[in-house]
Amino acid sequence: MSSIKKDLLEFAELEEKYAEELRELAKSLKHPVLRAIFESISKDSEKHSALYKAIAILVSEVQPFISEEDLVRITATIEKHIKLESLMLERARGILLKIEDPRVKLLAASIADDESKHHKLLLSIKTGIAEAETFTESMLWDLVWKESPWHGAPGG
């Protein structure tokens, strides 16, 4: 196993342990806001663990191509969620403008920050991963005929 893959899997394991500790802390608390915050951070750690595992696979294995059909579904879902993230970001910012309570402002700012990051991430995924790793029919035909001296005509 490569050193980087080993490190990534170790990071994933650490994130999982951290997530479990935070879940246990959240369960023990009666304060609903603190419980929600620690549960949320726990879920982020679970997400980080899953991403570290995915990166370990990405750097150590050949990835399958994405089909054109999957790209259509991925693109449609991403575009839908980009619109939703924009709406939720607007709403979180609205709360920030309306509410004076610093506790609420802190939480609403955290939500707005997450929504902004999600929006940027979805845009990046669409172009940087989904589109970049899609194998299209035109690519197939280019592989079959582009370098062929006969270009589909008899002669070979």
User: What percent strand?
Assistant: under 5%
Structural class: mainly alpha
Element-level helix/strand string: HHHHH
Question: What is the quaternary state of this protein?
Answer: single chain
Number of strands: 0
- State the end-to-end CA separation: 45 Å
Characterization of this structure:
With 156 residues, this protein is an all-alpha fold. The chain folds into two domains: 1-63; 65-151. 81% of the residues lie in helices and 0% in strands. The protein is built from five helices and no strands. The chain has helices at 3-28, 32-60, 68-98, 102-131, 137-146. The protein is flat. The two termini are 45 Å apart. The model has no long low-confidence stretch (mean pLDDT 89).
Give the topology.
Blueprint: H1 3-28, H2 32-60, H3 68-98, H4 102-131, H5 137-146
Helix pairs in contact: 1-2, 3-4
Write a brief caption for the model.
The protein is an all-alpha fold.
Please tag this protein with its features:
mainly alpha; 156 residues; 81% helix
